[in-house]
User: Which sequence fits this backbone?
C-alpha cells in the first residue's frame, strides 16, 4: 500500500539499467531517501508470453521497423495498478513519444500533484495504436527531434516533476523565481563571489543593498534576455 504522503513512480522500459545513474544521484536520490518519492523501473520483457521474451512485432499492412505489442503493456499496467493500489484516484499513465504534446513547466507542476505516475518508454518505431487509445491518459514529447527511445525523455520529465514535490528542495521558495515557473520570461543573470574575477566585475547595483532597485534591474534584464534569446515567449505572453 502506498503512503498518502509519498509519490509513486513506475517506469515500463526495455532498458531499466539506463535509469540507475541519473536516479541514484543528487536531488532525486535525496527525495527517495526522504521517503517523498518511490521510483521503480520494470523490464517490459517480464510480461512477454514466450520463452524468447518477445515484446515487439512487425506492423500490420507492412512498413519498416518493429512495433511494441499491446499485450505485454496491458499486463504490466494491470499488475502495477494492483500492486500499488486500485483505490488511488490521482494516477496518470503517460506515454513518452515524438507525437506527444510538448512538455512545459505547467505540466510538470500539475503532474507533481499526482499520487501515482506510470511512464511507458516508447521504442523501435512506436507502440500499437491501441495503447494510445485505451491504456494511457497522456502522451508527452520533450522536443521536436528523434531519440532512440523514451528512456531519456522519461528521465527529463521525472527530474522536472520530483523537484517540485513539497519537501524535496531545502528551500520552499527555490522554484518560485525560476524561468517558466510563473511567467514566460527567462531568468535574470545571477552572480556570486568574488565580485571581481580577472577584471570581470559584477553589476554594481547588486552590491547597493537597495532591494527595490535590484528588483527593477532583475526584471529589466529578464525582459532583455528573453527578447534576445526567446522572443517567441513574449509573443505567447501577449496572446
Assistant:
Amino acid at each position: 500500500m502506498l503512503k498518502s504522503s509519498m509519490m509513486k513512480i513506475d517506469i515500463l522500459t526495455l532498458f531499466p539499467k539506463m535509469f540507475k545513474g541519473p536516479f541514484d544521484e543528487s536531488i532525486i536520490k535525496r527525495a527517495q531517501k526522504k521517503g517523498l518519492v518511490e521510483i521503480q523501473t520494470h523490464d517490459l520483457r517480464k510480461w512477454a508470453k514466450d520463452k524468447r521474451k518477445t515484446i515487439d512485432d512487425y506492423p500490420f499492412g507492412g512498413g519498416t521497423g518493429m512495433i511494441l505489442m499491446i499485450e505485454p503493456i496491458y499486463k504490466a499496467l494491470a499488475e502495477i495498478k494492483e500492486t500499488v493500489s486500485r483505490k488511488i484516484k490521482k494516477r496518470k499513465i503517460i506515454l513518452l513519444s515524438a507525437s506527444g504534446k510538448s512538455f512545459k513547466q505547467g505540466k510538470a507542476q500539475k503532474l507533481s500533484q499526482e499520487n501515482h505516475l506510470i511512464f511507458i518508454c516508447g521504442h523501435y518505431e512506436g507502440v500499437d495504436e491501441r495503447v494510445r487509445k485505451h491504456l494511457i491518459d497522456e502522451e508527452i514529447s520533450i522536443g521536436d527531434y528523434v531519440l532512440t527511445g523514451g528512456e531519456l525523455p522519461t528521465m527529463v520529465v521525472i527530474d522536472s516533476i520530483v523537484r517540485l514535490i513539497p519537501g524535496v528542495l531545502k528551500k520552499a521558495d527555490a522554484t518560485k523565481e525560476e524561468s517558466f515557473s510563473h511567467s514566460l520570461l527567462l531568468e535574470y543573470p545571477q552572480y556570486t563571489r568574488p565580485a571581481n574575477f580577472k577584471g570581470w566585475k559584477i553589476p554594481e547595483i547588486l552590491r547597493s543593498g537597495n532591494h527595490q532597485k535590484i528588483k527593477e534591474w532583475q526584471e529589466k534584464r529578464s525582459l532583455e534576455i528573453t527578447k534576445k534569446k526567446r522572443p517567441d515567449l513574449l509573443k505567447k505572453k501577449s496572446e
Notes: The beta strands are 7-13, 37-43, 56-57, 67-68, 91-102, 116-121, 138-141, 196-197, 200-201.
